[in-house]
Amino acid sequence: MAKVFNVNGACQKNIHYMVNLTPRLMEIKAMTDAGKFFSINKARQYGKTTMLRAFTEFIRNSYIVLRLNNP
User: Fold this and answer.
1) Which of 2, 17, 19, 69 has its CA 20 to 30 A from that of 48?
2) Which parts of the chain register pLDDT below 70?
3) CA-CA distances (angstroms) from residue 38 to 1, 4, 24, 35, 57?
4) Count helices and strands in the chain by DSSP H and E runs
5) Domains of the chain: total
6) In this predicted structure, what is the pLDDT of residue 37?
7) Cα 10–Cα 61–Cα 20 angle in degrees, nearest 5
8) Alpha carbon distance 29, 38 (integer Å)
9) Per 3-state DSSP, what percentage of the chain is helix, strand, and coil (rounded to 5)?
């Protein structure tokens, strides 16, 4: 299946075009490894959920990741 541009919801790298998030993920992991806090705050449709989902995959081998949703 050809990749498409996604403008609704979180992106999935196997079906949507995406920018390379690796440099940002490495920066966030360095902060996490140092015990620092970080926040991701932007308006709607800026990729916050996509970034956090990518980060959980990025650190999966180093950390236990718990994903919580508030119903």
Assistant:
1) 2
2) none
3) 36, 31, 12, 10, 17
4) 2, 0
5) 1
6) 92
7) 40
8) 10
9) 30, 5, 65
Q: What residue numbers bound the domain in which 68 lies?
A: 1-71
Return the amino acid letter for 64. I
- Kindly report the pTM of this predicted structure: 0.80
Distances (CA, A) of 5 to 22, 39, 51, 70: 19, 26, 16, 29
Tokens for 34, please give them: 């140092």
Contact 39, 46 (CB under 8 A): no
Residue 54 CA to residue 11 CA, distance in Å, equals 10
pLDDT at 1: 79
